[in-house]
Amino acid sequence: MPPFTHLTLALVAGVLLDRLLGEPRRYHPLVGFGTLATWLERRLNRPGHRIARGALAWALAVLPWVLAAAWLRVHGGLLAIAIDVGLLWFALGARSLVEHAHAVAVPLQAGDLAEARRRVGWIVSRDTAALNPTQVAAAGTESVLENGNDAIFGTLFWFLVAGGPGAVLFRLANTLDAMWGYRTERYLHFGRLAARVDDVLGWLPARLTALSYALLGHTRHALHCWRHQGPGWKSPNAGPVMAAGAGALRVQLGGEAPYHGAMTQRPPLGSGSAPDANSLFAAIALVNRSLALWIGISLLAGAIAWGLPHA
């Protein structure tokens, strides 16, 4: 079996496993990884050579798991496929993303603002205690669009490039960026490598995610927002993804949001109507359609790869 055909079969199986089981409810590997990362940061993030210390911490946190994943699948065959399926299930967060988004959208639609605020606080870093319904909807919609790339499509891209070890590398690097990639006094230098690695690994997947959103929504509007609004966003990868997604949905995102007790003015994303619960449901549907598109293209490519040796 050609290697790419092996990966496409494992990809479909891993996505189905995620859809069936979701993330582990107890003893999630990423929770343990986060504990390890916190332990390393506390011991290595000290004055002097912070960039080098951050690079060492990143290597100690990520590389042993990637190398272990590569070693487990080295013998090939059915065992390698099983290993890849398991690693993709660990790294993928499609069902979890949908569940968290529904947990915000349903109470918001029912008028239970307190519950909607509480649940959106689980998936965003901004202050949520005083958000109005529009702001809750905006926060949830932005999170769905951005995490569509971080939790799903970036993982699938690197899985197709390097199998299970690639998916593990991307997900762990993305997790460390979320923990250390801040421009604060504590993390500006220590987290620099974590932020740069995540930017590099996510560059192409983010643009493929943006293109998927554009193709499956209001295409011309999405492409316009991507081109004109994406570059103005603070993240080189989140900008294109969120701008294209907002344009695809014809909804207004970005703008003012509360962080750490103060209002932060962010560039606008998309245009059209103000977000509400329906915007969240529409974002979920857009991510699901994009996932179906990626699976379909992967299967087609796998079938072509299978047929080439027999042509």
What does this protein structure show overall?
By secondary structure, the chain is mainly α. The protein has one domain. Helices cover 72% and strands 5% of the residues. The chain is built from 11 helices and 2 strands. The chain has helices at 3-21, 29-44, 50-72, 77-91, 94-110, 113-120, 133-180, 192-215, 219-229, 238-249, 277-307; strands at 253-259, 262-269. The protein has a two-stranded antiparallel sheet with strand order 1-2. Strand 1 (253-259) and strand 2 (262-269) form a beta hairpin. The longest helix is centred in the middle third of the chain and has 48 residues, at 133-180. It is globular and about 55 Å long. The two termini are 14 Å apart.
In short:
The chain has 311 residues and is mainly α.
